[in-house]
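Final report, results section. Input specification for complex C-07:
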Amino acid sequence: MELTVRIQRYDPEKDSAPHFENYKLENVNKTDRILDLLNRIKWEIDGGLTYRRSCTHGICGSDAVKINGRNRLACSVLVQDLKISKSTIQIEPIPALPLEKDLLVDMSSFFEKYEIVKPYLIPKDAPPERERYQTNEDAELLFESAKCIQCGSCSTSCPSLWVNENYIGPAAFLKAYRFIFDTRDDATAERLDLIDTTDGLWRCHTIFNCVEACPKEIDITWHISQLKKAALRREI
Amino acid sequence: MIHKYDVVIVGAGGAGLQAAIEIPTESSCAVLTKVFPTRSHTGTAQGGVSAALGNEEEDSWEWHAFDTVKGGDYLGDQDAIETMCKDAIRAIIELEHMGMPFNRTPEGKIAQRMFGGHTANFGKKPVRRACYSADRTGHVMLQTLYEQCIKNDVTFFSEFHVMDLIIRDGVCRGLVAIEIKTGEIHIFHAKAVMFATGGYGRVFQITSNAMAGTGDGFEMAYRNGVPLEDMEFVQFHPTGLWKLGILVSEAARGEGGILRNKDGERFMERYAPSIKDLAPRDMVSRAIFTEIKEGRGIEAPDGSFYVGLDLTHLGKELIEEKLPEITGFAKTYLGVDANEEWIPVQPTTHYAMGGIPTTIDAEVIVDENNTTMPGFYAAGECACVSVHGANRLGTNSLLDILVFGRRGGKKIAKFIVNADYPELPDDASAWTHETIERIRNNDNNVKMIDVRSKMQKTMMDTCSVFRVENTMKEGLQKIKELQEKYLLVGIDDKSKGFNTDLLEVAELGSLLNTAETIITCAINRKESRGAHSRDDYPKRDDTDWLKHSLIFATTGSTPDIRYKPVIIKQFEPKERVY
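Structure output:
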């Protein structure tokens, strides 16, 4: 089939502001990934088109972009997954982060927030000789949060971040959850102090944009609500 | 800009991060990576990491070592294999202590599953040795190691693309990199450089490898006079998602999945009667191609062929708990519900057994006498210790990066205490500047995509699972023509910052030179062993070929190939049957 891909372009060395360009592609298969279309445009039409990508199957988290208005991974969405009006697909960078070039944004503030929550295991005691025991049920409490690939789709889809750039955001909360609910970790109070703040947990208004945006289908709002409960309980 | 660090590590996958963790905080250490650390290819590993923990049933590191030797068709160095399999137990326990989330046994220990080629009691029956976290083992391992690096306050230079090593008079003195964001060239002056740069899968048309897997580390070492070891051994993973090559973990078969041909026959029973679908990857890949060649493949609507990976008998619960990611891929990319239908699969280029030769402490070896180069280290897929020999067993690559990344880190930590900074030459960044200028100034008549697609097709057609001399020679000739053409490739994007157009051309240079070493070594080795299978030399030949090949760049048009002996300890070469 024939498709028009409408892409936001911006080269800070040339352009004063972002603008859209249209690219007509022939012989598009309905099973092509959106990343395949971006690659075709870059390789066949304009080598200047700039975006991040690596694994091509939704595990490295490089290629989060806005596709037809929603944050998605370009490598995990096929043409047939989209409702396409007027044979046009629109692709923009994910919002709420500084634009660098074309579809590429500066992720540094996103990763700084991830570091706020002390994203590493903090056990009280020295480790035993063999592994620490953990029940499968306790391990399973972590698996969903541990699926996170830090693509930024959730945090940048959140209206709370749009209005307050200091908001810690769903991705970092998910990381905090992953340790707070790990039976092997002993820094719950310390971590809750870091997220139970003015820019923290309570700015989540359960809008569910993060859940809708997450390419790994993590129920992020549920995880945040568990953190809120934990924060509340300790105040009583 | 010139930076000075005691240690510079290139690559932030498992090996690079594990090495960085070992560098004491009083030394200065920088980790350079062309993708953000958690984007590294280690994250795509799925099924597990092996260690003879014996949590599910009796196991021993000697059995693991035997399986690794036999799986590698007796080409692996047995001292290195011993080191790895013994240390595996500590490595996994340490990961658990770092907080890696594992699946657990009913009593709470790390759970273990079966995997291809891993057996109990020297080949008697499959054994549960792969420690896992559903089918996201690499992902959570990469996350865990990165978490430890944050805890240790490791310095990262993220989105720095390394272009060249600075080696003069046989001493490594640092490296040259492009800061992707600005296009600025940086020189890193170092006492020790470690390459943990991953693989080269993108040399081939169908691959499970990330787009970042362009062989940069292999090529930079080779271009700077370091030989590459056993480059003819390329692993084709039997179960890549049809057409896309995306990995479908061997864990699917470890959990009971069965490969079937168009007649529904479990064909692996004919090729490996004892362990069937859990035979090593080289054997299963050959079996699949043989089935297809002999007319028992399943025909796709576009006329291509695949075989079926049958998980329909495993039950929804097991699939959701233990294989959610791969069944998700089948659904997303092919619209196949693995609970109901077979997953269409075909062999996909997966792993480099060969690479930069190293000692068991990751020191880079520069000749057939095991002479090491001061200041240069390598670990992980870009290195060849050699533990994988002619064919790597599944789960041993995650183990390799943990064990040898750590050993390299420890060795470097000792080395830098007494080492001085070697002098930096005036022309350190000359090659990088010339290369960038050439690409920028070329007319854009010869397109990167044209050269790259032809290379990938050539390698797939002439140097994949089954190989034969004449075809490979034609392939080599084509690669040489493409290398000439590459020098004319230009770009559209003339900006400085985030010039991914330019970087993709630079990566093509790495791919082409790596391809040349692979096919040259494949033509040279006149026997069939492990993943190197020659139609014209179908038998393994221990008399003439039980040796490692080392390919050296020369000033002429033909590389030089020399050899070094395989280290045999307790396991004498035997016929390899399963």
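Chain B has 16 helices and 25 strands. Residues 430-555 of chain B form a domain with the Methane Monooxygenase Hydroxylase; Chain G, domain 1 fold (CATH 1.20.58.100). This concludes the modelling results for the funded period.
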